[in-house]
Amino acid sequence: MLNNIYKLFFSRLYALQGRSSRKEYIARLLLTTIVFLIGGYTVDSVPNTGLFSFVYIFSLLFCMIIMFFQYIPLAVRRLHDLNESGWYVLITFLPFGQLLILWLMFKKGTPTTNKYGEPPIN
Predict the structure, then answer these.
(1) What is the DSSP letter of 93?
(2) What are phi and psi of 78, to 5 degrees?
(3) H helices within the chain, ranges in order?
(4) How much is the pTM?
(5) Which of 99, 115, 104 is CA-nearest to residue 20?
(6) What gap in Å lies between CA 120 and CA 18, rounded to an integer?
(7) What angle do CA 12, 14, 16 make, to 5 degrees?
(8) What confidence category does residue 1 fall into, taking pLDDT thresholds of 50, 70 and 90?
């Protein structure tokens, strides 16, 4: 079980090559969302004085930056699973581009080998 969790959350964090399944995409997107929500709600409850608040806010910000930058390669691999170019991930930075996220979540990937590789096995 730990091996499956490791493969799902920690393998190929920043790899742009290959494909990612819907399961991997949704699991990592939910984890990122939970980290951002917890960080947003708890940062207000930390007192603004002392070294603890500085370390807490700095570590939270560092974690959020890592989680944000791991999303981009994940979305590229998910687009590869749909047999689309990874450059379409830039659409998410445009207004209404977040609808692409819904498309990535629910559209089934190419069941056979495409130009980006073998189908993901999860």
Answers:
(1) G
(2) -65, -40
(3) 2-9, 22-42, 50-81, 99-106
(4) 0.79
(5) 104
(6) 8
(7) 90
(8) low
